[in-house]
Amino acid sequence: MDLTFTPEQLAFRDELRAWLAEHGPAGSLGEEPDDEDESWEWRREWQRTLSEGGWAGVHWPKEVGGRGASLTETAIFFEELGRSGSPLPADVLGILLAGPTLMSWGDDAQQERLLPTILSADETWCQGFSEPDAGSDFAAVKTRAVKADPDDPDSDWLITGQKVWTSGAQYAKWCMLVARTGDGRGGQEPGAKKHQGLTYFVLDMEQEEVDVRPLVQITGSPEFNELFLTDARVPQSMVVGGVGNGWKVALTTLMNERAGLAFFLQVRLRQALDRLVAVAQENGSSEDPVISDRLADLHLRTEALRLMAWKGLTAIEQYGQPGPEGSLTKWLWSETNQLLVQLAVDVVGAEALTADSRWGYELLRARGNSIEGGTTEIQKTIIAERVLGLPRAS
Ligand SMILES: Cc1cc2nc3c(=O)[nH]c(=O)nc-3n(C[C@H](O)[C@H](O)[C@H](O)COP(=O)(O)OP(=O)(O)OC[C@H]3O[C@@H](n4cnc5c(N)ncnc54)[C@H](O)[C@@H]3O)c2cc1C
User: Fold this and answer.
1) For residue 62, is it within any domain?
2) Catalytic pick from 79, 80, 223, 257?
């Protein structure tokens, strides 16, 4: 891939830089609040500002409210967003996961109903994949969907089961939910494999049959939740990609998750590293050869991640959607971020271990990086089998 920008791409970057300088949160919205609910509203407001400026869905086609930006421009967008110190919009799950999945698999009516409110943040999304016994082994999903009237193919689905670690469910209007539909009427298909008989639904969270219970993380924030579903109702029109096709549709969501965040995360990593280097220079710890060696290692990793994120674009250009290489970026990013926050403790000192310090929060929050979006062990298996083409273990 040629990393030299064309005059058009430079013009795009300059237009964005000027817009961010004028409208960026530091200018118009002030500092991000610490409180979870206030922070959510703050990031939602930021998404509205982005949307009004036409920047919320740069990679989305113009017909559905996006800017129709090329892949390179999209990469520039995320780099500039990170560089300007702007946060991600509130509904990352809607913009990066649900939207692209609906554009790949949704029918016209679903796209018309669901896409416009994503960019404006009027309706936000959560991802109901994980269950108490189905995380890495996602195909083991037990949540079950049956037809309200087994003899009427147009009747609603009734969904019962439990989801867990559902980020942002407390604010979401819609949930990308995968449930077991078996033979299409809710029955078991004898001899079917685990990943068969799954269906991808768009669940309306605003119903009594959906009980959202917050889970407090190690950081003290209730970022995610448990969902208890008891005959939660989903109309047939909200099945995405056809009954029994949920595995394939969900893979589209997961690949978009890994690829979509790559750019933003590597820029955030660079910012955190620059901050840490500045502290190390200020307090003299950069003179310590062990510390400077660890900082240099982080610099190399961060630069490698930047180049890998750009390389990932070629896969999207070739195949029209992200490839399994996103797993490599996800693995390297989570490992590097965890190394960075651990080094911060040695550089910053005891203050980084206090409850209300920013580095303290980052240290605790980073523990989840190698779990969320698929654990490191699972990424390694994907890389071994689908990138390197090694034989399967069993
Ligand atoms: C901050 C955060 C936010 C999240 N947000 C969401 C969300 O919004 N929606 C959602 O659906 N989920 C979400 N998750 C859940 C996340 O996707 C799962 O935690 C993850 O997929 C792992 O599943 P699990 O927790 O059930 O662990 P398990 O799958 O039980 O894994 C336990 C351990 O066993 C290892 N292991 C399991 N299987 C294998 C194997 N085949 N080979 C080698 N090792 C293996 C794992 O790597 C791990 O170390 C979130 C998680 C976190 C931490």
Assistant:
1) yes
2) 257
Q: Which residues of the chain have pLDDT under 50?
A: none
| Predicted pLDDT of residue 381 | 94
Q: Which one of 196, 222, 244 terminates a domain? A: 244
Per-residue model confidence as pLDDT tens digits over 157-190: 999 999 999 999 999 999 999 999 976 655 556 5
Question: Residue 65 — left, alpha, or beta (φ > 0 → left; ψ -120 to 50 → alpha)?
Answer: left
Query: What total of structural domains would you count in the chain?
Result: 3
- What does the pLDDT read at residue 187? 58
- Closest residue to atom 7 of ligand 1, CA basis: 166
Same domain (yes/no): 84, 98: yes
User: 86: domain range?
Assistant: 7-105
Cβ 374 under 6 angstroms from ligand 1: yes
Residue 341 near residue 299 (C-beta atoms within 8 A): no
**DSSP assignment, residue 394?**
-
Contact 379, 324 (CB under 8 A): no
Q: Is the CB of 377 under 6 A from ligand 1?
A: yes
Asked whether 166 lines ligand 1 (CB < 6 A), one says: yes
| Nearest atom in ligand 1 to 132's CA | 26
CA 10, distance to chain mean position in Å, is: 27
Report the nearest atom of ligand 1 relative to the CA of 163.
11
CB of 130 shorter than 6 A to ligand 1? yes
> What is the structure's pLDDT at 348?
94
Give the up-direction half-sphere exposure of residue 84: CA atoms within 13 A in the CB hemisphere: 23
